[in-house]
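FORM 7B: Structural annotation worksheet

SECTION A. Query
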Amino acid sequence: MELKGTSALVCGGAGGFGEATVRRLVAAGASVVIADLAEEKGKTLATELGPATRFVSTDVTDEESVQGAVDTALEMNPLRSTVIVHGGPSAGRRMVNRAGEVYPLDTFRKTVEIFLTGTFNVMARSAAAMSKQEPVDSGQRGVVVTTASIAGLEGQPGQTDYSAAKGGVVSLALTAARDLAPSGVRVVSIAPGTFFTPAFRMSEEDAEARFGQVVPNPKRMGRVDEYARLAQNIIENDYLNGTTIRIDGALRFNA
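SECTION B. Predicted structure
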């Protein structure tokens, strides 16, 4: 899938992974919609990158909000790629703590709603728009890149909601790819390990000292541009479909 002359939608485009992805796709010649709730950061990025980008305030759990972002992308160029990399809450508590208190069900629901249901919402609306585009020479119409996590494959204590949501994103990749195959729309999920992003709310030096040294090789945390490079490669490589790609330096979470 050629990026030049197309539009792309990046949900979570003002965040760490998202911003790096937006920059790469713009550099490759795409027009990009920065879809996020972080209005100040999103508008600042769009202003910096110029007319090839637009910021759209987007709630991934709201159908009309997501449709607005998709429609904006369609106004710019044919929508060929969507990268779903939005963040969200996770309380980081065990299902039942030492005091016997149960993890709040509303928190569990909210985490799954944002990470899993939100992913489905963006994917479905993007794919519907892509399916109406003329196919390129390869017969493809578009590609959706989702973001899982290695926590969706081997979650740690205190990650029940996040692991369940991200495990759902992993499972969604193959099923969605099969659903969308007749439309010529691919689906691939990326499962990052420990990457340094603003979500850590600490200095990169402190984060590296705490988390980087447990990564087998290279012995450091991931860098957001490494995620973005993989997302771009997935978009451009038509034979990647229906799978989840780990990018984690061979890290495996232990209990």
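SECTION C. Observations
The CA atoms of residues 120 and 231 lie 18 Å apart. The longest strand covers residues 185-192.

SECTION D. Sign-off
Analyst initials: ____
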